[in-house]
Amino acid sequence: MLKWLEWAKQIQAISQTGLAYGKDIYDIERFEMLRDLSVEIMQTYTEAGEEKIRELFASETGYATPKVDVRGVVLNEDGAMLMVRELADGAWSLPGGWADIGLSPKEIAVKEVREESGYEVEAVRLLAVLDKKFHEHPPSPHHVYKIFILCRLTGGAAQIGLETTQVGFFAEGALPPLSLERNTERQIQAMFELARGERSDVLLD
């Protein structure tokens, strides 16, 4: 991970937690200064403007915790993997997204697969819990845990969603251009192996 990004995230987390629990007005002022510093670091090393950085990176309140991304891993009868083409960058990913309050990881996986691909699935078992910082993703302002859940096809048909433009199944050796913000080639390879039962362990960073 880029050191400046790691420092900015840590400073932002300290300031957010301090603002959530701080009582002394002078401490609160110092934590606000720390938050401003984290925004300044991000602004210096990225092309995003201050307003966007504050909205995406420094607007949360309460105790600072990682964000959670849930992905559904679905194979068809031929062993090809379900993927969707993302509207955001035109590349492909496993169906999924940020975890929703009030839903379990299994419920989120089922919901995301249905909304992004049109297919109905049943969540079967956990395949992996990965920390985004250990993988070949582009720099991100958030600390992210990625949960991959094996799902079984039960019905439905290919249908694009609000955030997707195409749906398809891809063989292991014929992957489309991947949305690296969401999944990497190594992760997809590992999911093929886990889904086929070639590995019995749950991947855990």
TrEMBL record:
Residue ranges constituting the Nudix hydrolase domain according to the UniProt record: 65-194
Keyword field contains Ubl conjugation: no
Record-linked PROSITE patterns: NUDIX (PS51462)
First-tier enzyme category under EC: hydrolase
CDD domains, A to Z: NUDIX_CDP-Chase_like
Alphabetical UniProt keywords: Hydrolase
GO molecular function, one term: hydrolase activity
Residue ranges of coiled coil: none
Pfam family, one: NUDIX
Cofactor dependency: Mg(2+)
EC nos: 3.6.-.-
PANTHER family, per the entry: ADP-RIBOSE PYROPHOSPHATASE YJHB-RELATED, GDP-MANNOSE MANNOSYL HYDROLASE
Protein name (Swiss-Prot/TrEMBL): NUDIX hydrolase
Lineage of source species: Bacteria, Bacillati, Bacillota, Bacilli, Bacillales
